[in-house]
Amino acid sequence: MRVADYIVEYIRERNVRTVFMLSGTGSIFLDEAIAKADALTCVCARHEAAATLMGTGASKLTGDIGVAVVTSGPGAANAMAGLIDAWADAVPVLVLAGQVESRHIDRSARSFGIQGYNVVDCVRPVTKYAVVVDDPVQIRAHLDRAFHEALTGRPGPVWLDVPLDVQAAEIDPAALAGFEAPAPEPWSNGPAETAAVVLDELRGASRPIFVVGQGVRQARAQGELAALVEHLGVPTVCTRLGYDLLPYRSEAVMGQGGIRGRPHVERVMREADLVVSLGASLSTGLVGEHRDAFSPQARVVMVDLDADQFDRANVAVDVRLRMDLLGLLTEMNRQIEHDRTGLEWPQWRNHCRELKEKSPSAATLATEPINSYYFVNRLEAQAGRDAVFVVDTGSAYYVTGQTLEFNDDQREVTSAAFLNMGAAVPMAVGASFAAAGARVITIVGDGAIELNIQELATISDYERDIKVFVLNNGGYSSIRESQDALCTDRVLDEPAPLDFRAVAAAFRIPYHRLSAVDALDDDLAALLGPPGPALIEVICDSRQKLMRPAAAHDIRTHDGVTIPTRC
Amino acid sequence: MRVADYIVEYIRERNVRTVFMLSGTGSIFLDEAIAKADALTCVCARHEAAATLMGTGASKLTGDIGVAVVTSGPGAANAMAGLIDAWADAVPVLVLAGQVESRHIDRSARSFGIQGYNVVDCVRPVTKYAVVVDDPVQIRAHLDRAFHEALTGRPGPVWLDVPLDVQAAEIDPAALAGFEAPAPEPWSNGPAETAAVVLDELRGASRPIFVVGQGVRQARAQGELAALVEHLGVPTVCTRLGYDLLPYRSEAVMGQGGIRGRPHVERVMREADLVVSLGASLSTGLVGEHRDAFSPQARVVMVDLDADQFDRANVAVDVRLRMDLLGLLTEMNRQIEHDRTGLEWPQWRNHCRELKEKSPSAATLATEPINSYYFVNRLEAQAGRDAVFVVDTGSAYYVTGQTLEFNDDQREVTSAAFLNMGAAVPMAVGASFAAAGARVITIVGDGAIELNIQELATISDYERDIKVFVLNNGGYSSIRESQDALCTDRVLDEPAPLDFRAVAAAFRIPYHRLSAVDALDDDLAALLGPPGPALIEVICDSRQKLMRPAAAHDIRTHDGVTIPTRC
């Protein structure tokens, strides 16, 4: 059996059902093995960065490993650019890259053979495992190790570089050695003890909040979290990757916090005297620097399975609990059933509920040109119970993060740590294949869509049920706002927007245009009715500002000047 | 003065006139400094990889440093993907990247602050110099060092990561320390002695050839090379990056060699008993492995300013001469004037001339659907004396490499070591700004153009005189040929081509379509008449094969199976 065929068989046995790729001579035997594997869907992207982002989008939705296959040299270089999102957002993605033949690899050289270079050393800083598979009989061990690293602990991307000769080499699968994963580091305390610690902290608090992040989903503990929040009513702030964990209509759910979050959440975070962080990374974007977002007197309890997170957090962590969230939350729910004493905060809960109720509702902003907050509000109302929102950066990111409610089973996929401009279209393709029939709603700005615009053709080729809403506000509006805020001098001219009707024709995808606010509900109903691809241009108010909570931090120059920023 | 303003003033003093960029919050003070600098043209790309490739394209044309400015995080990641071409093809490019504030940088973390990551460690393996500018008063030293490394010895890309606080810091330019470049390593022999060595080798040979590469242009020694080849008549083979050094109509000029070169050159290379390599890297693509492309008895003399090239070459080098080519070629021309004894090879020269004359001419292939060789032949005839051809990969690369003649002052810009699919459109933008009014002719396949299709908008925005010819042969034809050659099983479906008329409308660029072979000359004359942007779809024969010289090498698997490849 060829190594390339073994790889395909291996990933299929690990339940990989879709591979995102762009073929090439450097990966030709991998490509061939994939093409002939019957129960593997092969999605041909139009750019290798997009292939990686498709794998990332698929994995962000399911937590399963996303797989991208690319060729050597420029293919690998492009794929590399799509990788940092998986690295920072802790997404398990496997890149299988072609490489020139082993004997041409010379790491001191600028290029190897034809279309090869030292990509492994370039991606090592942004992957959990990156190697050249230089011996065919090591293939099983490398795959074992790659899957282990990608999925264990804090997830992340891994990279296997497979030279052409290794791809084509014959091996005896029965004779291959595997990789023995090291025994996991034991928890310092059991779930019962850890749950008791957290509940004691809660008992000692007057104004507790939860901050919940994607670690909850990665632990497959959403149900336990929802039960806990429902039982205790602790006001709960979401990170962006934890945004769709809980329905906004649930009284205790405050919505997204941080510099791109809902304005009232800023106050909830500032007033809390206890912060219990559950699978959230307390990044700069969420909590600012040091304790900017929290009161200096607040106590911070952090639960994470990765102890490195305790020191990384932008908040000095008072209580560090390395623990699996499924075990912890299950145990907390169990202990509460036995003893609710001291776990009531009626005044604080009322206060937070009132702040939430008083926060402005997007439903009232029915102006023309269309206000993007109003648009997202109306879109969600008609999107369907299991819709997957795939959101790009810039104003699309702000507006959705301050408007979407996830009251049914909707989900969100986005680039949180990096705000990777243009990533939404390829991530939508990945999410669509991973979502098994669910509708995908993509929201992207007219500037950002250009960075992966070629993937509209992939949506069209594979006839995915993906509606791409382009918020046309005349360019890079959030960068424009930053420039307005920070620059005293003349700023750069912005590029002119594209002709989106022609864009849709070019990539063979149906086009719609929304501009009348009165007809918005009817228009949305009509175009969301039939399944299939569509590009919908939404003519938005280019002068509309974004809601910005207080600045998370200022820029302090070396000479002591402080420049305020809300970017 | 702010560091950002100092950087802009510095690059202007180093004769940088154009900056390729995409703005962002992480580079906001750099962006502002560029926007307000009057004598600096700022070209806003639509993707950061394209910005880097524009800098690369500009530099490939002129040899001057190309400059790209990008934001932190995803901007830097995209720019990184555009960098490997400059690395492998030895192009001086400076990337100025934004970065989060210095105090947020923590190289052990997956991300820094908002939209920052450890890009410097990722790009170090593919740059000559890559640092974070962490101290404002070091800015001059870092810029000095970056320019020195980029332009000295074998050129290449360099990367300065400039944190936001450093961009905004006030400095006193007069107080900045510079970088003292080390004294260059002395040549082991002077130009006169080295010239004598080469001429003695030529005197001892019966069938000498020159192999000429871009090192000649980097040494600004084109005129001396042309005089030498004219005087001696030594049959001269070009690498791809040396392809436009000499006019094909010159009797001794054989054209491009290697696996994507002209078929008759393969025989010239194989029959030679002496190879004098002048500024060429003797890559796998040119000479195959070991001595595959040359006779085992041939003697190889290599002249390069970088001694590392002698060991890197895929040919065992018999005589290694580390020398500046301008000095060497000037001296050779001088010595020949005094003494031509033993420097005549009439029989060999006749033989090579006959091989060249007998090689098939593209001018005879006037079939319909249009043969791409015929198309390139007709296009060059009407392109204009100073046209710059910017050529993409795949079949466009093969066909132009076997057809273009450069009989006037035409130039070529392409991705040689990496065959970077889709790089031509952004490189054309860079070349157009660097070419000061010359017309740019871009030739790209219908599959490849998608990878940077968004830059058609940049061509349109800046009204560049760039004609983009899309060879529509129904997909990735060269990959298809590789699959036909190598794969026994079913291969992947190819994606459907775009609607190029709509593509042109989307990006606001005039569209033309060429399909009638009889009208080709008239149609080309009409559309090449007026200056300005145009997208021209050329309907080519999708069943047409490429001319492939003998396989450069085979793929040998670990278990000894040999798979022939001509890819």
Automatic annotation (TrEMBL), chains A, B:
<dbReference type="GO" id="GO:0009097">
    <property type="term" value="P:isoleucine biosynthetic process"/>
</dbReference>
<dbReference type="InterPro" id="IPR011766">
    <property type="entry name" value="TPP_enzyme_TPP-bd"/>
</dbReference>
<comment type="similarity">
    <text>Belongs to the TPP enzyme family.</text>
</comment>
<dbReference type="InterPro" id="IPR012001">
    <property type="entry name" value="Thiamin_PyroP_enz_TPP-bd_dom"/>
</dbReference>
<dbReference type="GO" id="GO:0005948">
    <property type="term" value="C:acetolactate synthase complex"/>
</dbReference>
<dbReference type="GO" id="GO:0000287">
    <property type="term" value="F:magnesium ion binding"/>
</dbReference>
<dbReference type="GO" id="GO:0003984">
    <property type="term" value="F:acetolactate synthase activity"/>
</dbReference>
<dbReference type="GO" id="GO:0050660">
    <property type="term" value="F:flavin adenine dinucleotide binding"/>
</dbReference>
<dbReference type="InterPro" id="IPR012000">
    <property type="entry name" value="Thiamin_PyroP_enz_cen_dom"/>
</dbReference>
<dbReference type="InterPro" id="IPR045229">
    <property type="entry name" value="TPP_enz"/>
</dbReference>
<dbReference type="InterPro" id="IPR029061">
    <property type="entry name" value="THDP-binding"/>
</dbReference>
<dbReference type="Pfam" id="PF02775">
    <property type="entry name" value="TPP_enzyme_C"/>
</dbReference>
<dbReference type="Pfam" id="PF00205">
    <property type="entry name" value="TPP_enzyme_M"/>
</dbReference>
<dbReference type="Pfam" id="PF02776">
    <property type="entry name" value="TPP_enzyme_N"/>
</dbReference>
<dbReference type="InterPro" id="IPR029035">
    <property type="entry name" value="DHS-like_NAD/FAD-binding_dom"/>
</dbReference>
<keyword id="KW-0786">Thiamine pyrophosphate</keyword>
<dbReference type="GO" id="GO:0009099">
    <property type="term" value="P:L-valine biosynthetic process"/>
</dbReference>
<feature type="domain" description="Thiamine pyrophosphate enzyme TPP-binding">
    <location>
        <begin position="392"/>
        <end position="538"/>
    </location>
</feature>
<feature type="domain" description="Thiamine pyrophosphate enzyme N-terminal TPP-binding">
    <location>
        <begin position="1"/>
        <end position="108"/>
    </location>
</feature>
<feature type="domain" description="Thiamine pyrophosphate enzyme central">
    <location>
        <begin position="198"/>
        <end position="325"/>
    </location>
</feature>
<protein>
    <submittedName>
        <fullName>Acetolactate synthase-1/2/3 large subunit</fullName>
    </submittedName>
</protein>
<dbReference type="GO" id="GO:0030976">
    <property type="term" value="F:thiamine pyrophosphate binding"/>
</dbReference>
